[in-house]
Amino acid sequence: MKLQILGCYAATPRTMTNPTSQVLEVKNHMFLIDCGEGSQVQLRKHKIKFSRINHIFISHLHGDHFFGLPGLVSTFRLLGRDKELHIYGPKGIKEAITLLLKLGDSWTNYQLYFHELTSKEPEVIFEDDKVTVETIRLSHRVYTNGFLFKEKAGERKLNVEAVEKHKIDKAYFQNIKNGRDVVLDDGTIVSNTELSFDPPVPKSYAYCSDTGYKPDIVDQIKGATALYHESTFLESEAHLAVKTKHSTAMQAASIAKAANVGMLILGHYSTRYKSIELFKEEAMEIFPNVELADDGKFFEF
Amino acid sequence: MKLQILGCYAATPRTMTNPTSQVLEVKNHMFLIDCGEGSQVQLRKHKIKFSRINHIFISHLHGDHFFGLPGLVSTFRLLGRDKELHIYGPKGIKEAITLLLKLGDSWTNYQLYFHELTSKEPEVIFEDDKVTVETIRLSHRVYTNGFLFKEKAGERKLNVEAVEKHKIDKAYFQNIKNGRDVVLDDGTIVSNTELSFDPPVPKSYAYCSDTGYKPDIVDQIKGATALYHESTFLESEAHLAVKTKHSTAMQAASIAKAANVGMLILGHYSTRYKSIELFKEEAMEIFPNVELADDGKFFEF
């Protein structure tokens, strides 16, 4: 999985800091996650082909996660897009985007599908043969979902040596990859575990922004390869985190620790702080493997 | 009058080019004219105090003139604004902005006044003791207004020498500035033209974007100190200008010439062209005093 951070700062776009947006590349998909104002320029800056984006996931309808979407939808049209586009987000997102397109008399030439979310429980909102995406219910001032991107378990890997030793015909290879044993001509059964290796462990990425401290998400994101968790505040402003339904770096780290994730990526920093290194320092008191998101930063896991 | 160009390129925001927005400073007002995506970042970049903006004029509801407005309105709230804000734009602008604020549960703390425009004739939409703003009816794919910003004629200037010569008491000075004659104690009438000088010629700025070629605006903008007129295309793409209801640089220059304006500022360039200098060259074949708008450029007139 490859994660390109386009923006990861809270509240208002500034000269040097962009509101939330990121692109996750997984199994040939380019999933756009949130779309603050200016995201389309960030996409250009990081040379991400607009045509590769077919699914956009919006966590909630605050401006810093969403006000770049009307412009992106319009730009897709101006660039002559014809592929369909799927937008997943809270109820109301369809009304907002369609009203803006209507007022500009700028209907898209391509098919635009809105998948409006209202469920109070996690739900699978995208699935193909390689990936699922499910919502993570978060706690914010408005209806908000995180998203859990999960690879499906792949095929088992052929043990070439073992296959040759037993002189097994090619015709059986797909069955072996699918986990089946092989019965030889003389009736001997060769077990699948002898003929193949376990597939790579499927990876997963949990995106949790914006949210107050919400430990009941731990079960769902347990063992995630990477967790992006918002940390708007440091511990000294924990009272503001409660008041505004955001998290501190330490709270994000507590979630990471309890869920035993591979890596914690912090982001959604309030711009009140001089240095984002402080977020890492505080989080590492609780959880060791902490990375700091920053605009333009790229992660591979 | 001082004009700060924040963005002046057509269609989609790009890494190096911003969609339309500009700030006109006149008689202590900072009028924001159009507000494409990213305008709030451009305002910060050019160090324009957000608190000085109290009136925003939106020409039409295409994204490249308007999609920065929801974010700016939200940012004003986050910055703790309490002064009222007036927004002038086509009917529908209120519904759009209020829907977005409602979905984010982010009502402004300050008073937000919408002045929705529907008239098919030019109308005065703002007036105080020093300035008027009237609409210029343009011809585009959706309902679009330009704006004519006009200083009012100021007071006459006292001719100090003449006043002293006639030993005229201070009490009469305001009357003289207002254009009145003075009757001396002996009954002599001293004419105002002897006691005062003409005030400076009031300046005016005409903003015309977006529009197809529309010569019937010439009477209204006659003699304007400066005219900003869109020139999306060069003459080689005149057929596209007709089709999309935009103008060529030569058409903009024809308007400038017929209206006998002091200066023509070109802008709203299609990003298809390698150099914007070509726009100036073509326009100068028709009208001599042509300037090119560019992002970040500043004009004083």
Automatic annotation (TrEMBL), chains A, B:
It catalyses: Endonucleolytic cleavage of RNA, removing extra 3' nucleotides from tRNA precursor, generating 3' termini of tRNAs. A 3'-hydroxy group is left at the tRNA terminus and a 5'-phosphoryl group is left at the trailer molecule. Pfam families: Anti-Pycsar_Apyc1. Binds 2 Zn(2+) ions. Keywords: Endonuclease, Hydrolase, Metal-binding, Nuclease, tRNA processing, Zinc. Zn(2+) 2 binds at D64, H65, D210, H268. GO terms for molecular function: 3'-tRNA processing endoribonuclease activity. Its EC number is 3.1.26.11. The keyword Hydrolase applies. Zn(2+) 1 binds at H60, H62, H140, D210. Its cofactor is Zn(2+). The active site is at D64 (proton acceptor). It comes from the Bacteria. The keyword Nuclease applies. Belongs to the RNase Z family. Zinc phosphodiesterase, which displays some tRNA 3'-processing endonuclease activity. Probably involved in tRNA maturation, by removing a 3'-trailer from precursor tRNA. Homodimer. This is Ribonuclease Z. It comes from Zobellia barbeyronii. The gene is rnz.
